[in-house]
């Protein structure tokens, strides 16, 4: 596990080594005794539940370091209601989700989320959680708004320009 904000392995490297699983725990002693990554040593996280869905606000969860703590190399964005209400998730997992990811980008010291937690990931108005992940992967890989613009064969060119 990387220390002091170092980079994590690429998925392609993990696949090549047939080591494709990273497990995190919220129990600090398990890192020493079992080798399971204690999440708060490696990531920051916004509030979960209704408090984490306030438009224009992205504050850190109490257990987390401040979102802009760059000594933690991973960012987790929660975006789901305290009570899972399936009828509300179409709206939550659409424009609201993308807007929250942009808000949390700024709160996390201009770092895009590495993980996104939502309820009912298949429900949305449009691309939903899948589009959000495509956006995040595009931002992380090549700075574009969609991962599909990052390939040499892309008809988007340099991010559509």
Describe this structure in words.
The protein has 161 residues and is α/β, with parallel strands linked by helices. The chain has 2 domains: 41 residues, no CATH class; 107 residues, no CATH class. It is built from 5 helices and 5 strands. The strands form 2 sheets. A 3-stranded parallel sheet has the order 3-4-5, with helices on one face. A two-stranded parallel ribbon has the order 1-2. α4 runs parallel beside α5. It is globular and about 45 Å long. It starts with 10 loop residues before the first helix and ends in a 19-residue tail after the last helix. The mean pLDDT is 88. It holds the Pfam family PI-PLC_cat. One of its GO terms (molecular function) is phosphoric diester hydrolase activity.
Offer a concise description of the structure.
The chain is α/β, with parallel strands linked by helices. Helices cover 27% and strands 11% of the residues.
Q: Quickly count the helices.
A: 5
Strand content: 5-15%
On the 0 to 100 scale, the average pLDDT is 88
What spatial order of strands do you see in the largest sheet? 3-4-5
Oligomer: single chain
The tally of strands reads: 5
Q: What class would the helix/strand composition place it in?
A: alpha/beta
Unreliable residue runs: none
InterPro entries: PI-PLC_domain, PLC-like_Pdiesterase_TIM-brl
Pfam families: PI-PLC_cat (PF26178)
GO biological process, one term: lipid metabolic process
GO molecular function: phosphoric diester hydrolase activity
């Amino acid at each position: 596990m990387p220390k002091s904000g170092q980079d994590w392995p690429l998925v392609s490297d993990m696949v090549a080594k047939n080591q494709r699983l990273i497990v995190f725990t919220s129990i600090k002693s398990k890192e020493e005794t079992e080798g399971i990554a204690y999440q708060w040593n490696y990531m920051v996280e916004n509030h979960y539940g209704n408090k984490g869905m306030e438009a224009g606000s992205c504050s850190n969860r109490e257990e987390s370091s401040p979102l802009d703590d760059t000594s933690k190399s991973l960012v987790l964005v929660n975006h789901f209601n305290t009570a899972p209400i399936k009828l509300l998730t179409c709206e939550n997992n659409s424009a609201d989700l993308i807007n929250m990811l942009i808000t949390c980008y700024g709160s996390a010291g201009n770092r895009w989320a590495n993980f996104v937690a939502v309820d009912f990931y298949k429900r949305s108005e449009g691309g939903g959680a899948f589009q959000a992940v495509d956006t995040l992967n595009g931002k992380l890989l090549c700075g574009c708004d969609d991962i599909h613009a990052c390939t040499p064969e892309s008809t988007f060119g340099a991010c559509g320009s």
